[in-house]
Amino acid sequence: MNGINIFQSTPRIVMGIGASRRIADEVKRLSGKSVMVVTDPGLVKTGICDRIETILKDSGLQVQRFDNVEPDPPYEIASQAAQAVKDSGADTIVGLGGGSSLDIAKVASILVTNTSPVTSFFGIDMAPHEGLKTILIPTTAGTGSEVTPIAILSDHGEKLKKGIVSPHLFPRTAILDPELTVGLPSAVTAATGMDALIHAVEAYTSVNATSITDMLAERSIRLISSNIRTAFANGANIDARYRMLEGSMLAGMAFANAGVTAVHAFAYPIGAEFHIPHGIANSIMLWPVMEFNMLGNLGKFSRLAEFMGEFTDGLTERESALLAVDSLRDLVTDVEIPTSLTEYGVKEEDIPSLAEGVMKVTRLLANNPREIKLADAEKIYRKVL
Questions:
Q1: pTM of the model
Q2: Cα torsion for 98, 239, 14, 172, to the nearest 10°?
Q3: Can you tell me the mean pLDDT for 14-39?
Q4: What was the pLDDT predicted at 2?
Q5: What phi, psi does 151 have (nearest 5°)?
Q6: Residues 321 and 219 in one domain
Q7: Domain interval for residue 374
Q8: Contact 136, 106 (CB under 8 A)
Q9: Which of 48, 58, 73, 283 could pair with 77 as two cysteines, CB 3.0-4.6 Å apart?
Q10: CATH number at residue 376
Q11: How far separated are the first and last CA of the chain, in Å rounded?
Q12: Helices 278-293 and 317-334: crossing angle, nearest 10°?
């Protein structure tokens, strides 16, 4: 037992096939009259954004759009989105898309109501006032941003990703509709799905895990590990899509309270400097970090193998823990995610600076089940060159 624990999550979750068609009702429930939809150009091309906006407009709501969100968005985009909200006079923000769009919507909401610049909010509990009302609609089963008080933005100047953590980032409502994920390309399904699985695995092995987060993480791991291959290979399978979205949400609830660990700390520098998509960066770093971490809590790491459907009868804890690591590696291979940093241009001479970048991510390293030193970080990176 770790003393007093606090659990927080999004207060209202609307989930089910076709749930996104209730968006206007949910806006009106919050007494909203004017909506700013925050999304990205790719989602606009799919027609999903038009469908959501049509529902809003047909119900008599005023609707405007900010669609300049890009992958791994720099913090400047959050400021641009906030300015668009202010100029529009919108009273409600609807974040629609993957984790980047949801994070920008969340940060824009607090920038509208707080006078400080976005850079002043990096860290924990740095935003003094709650933000504008937000509703988040994920179109990927990935970040779980719809149920977390966390937003990750890129700082291109420092070649790092930085986090804003504040209860004011929780949306008022999350709407989860697996229909919106059916059209995802297989590569996006794989990368975002692995990101969600890693959230659950890291929450389960975090030193801040509790019985509540363990319950959520276990359920998430079982759901994602047993459905991601189907969702990847047969994207039209609505049941697999539903289970992936549910698993992503549960993983978000778990890591929002227990925290993620060193896999994410290793992913941030390579994502910021080499522009490796977040889910892929996490997947590449997964097995070497897990292999290093398992000695920090053999009992929990051994149970991961069981959660992923592996046969563990007769195995020692260490053998089961190694089996979990192998199972994760096999999963990354099956969904055809790259496994080497070399594929993204990372060279041996880049390792020292990348390792130094890892050591700066103290917020996440503090959650890790095993202490990581600079020399350890360099060795871990070298394993996936």
A1: 0.94
A2: -20
A3: 98
A4: 58
A5: -135, 135
A6: yes
A7: 186-382
A8: yes
A9: 73
A10: 1.20.1090.10
A11: 39
A12: 160
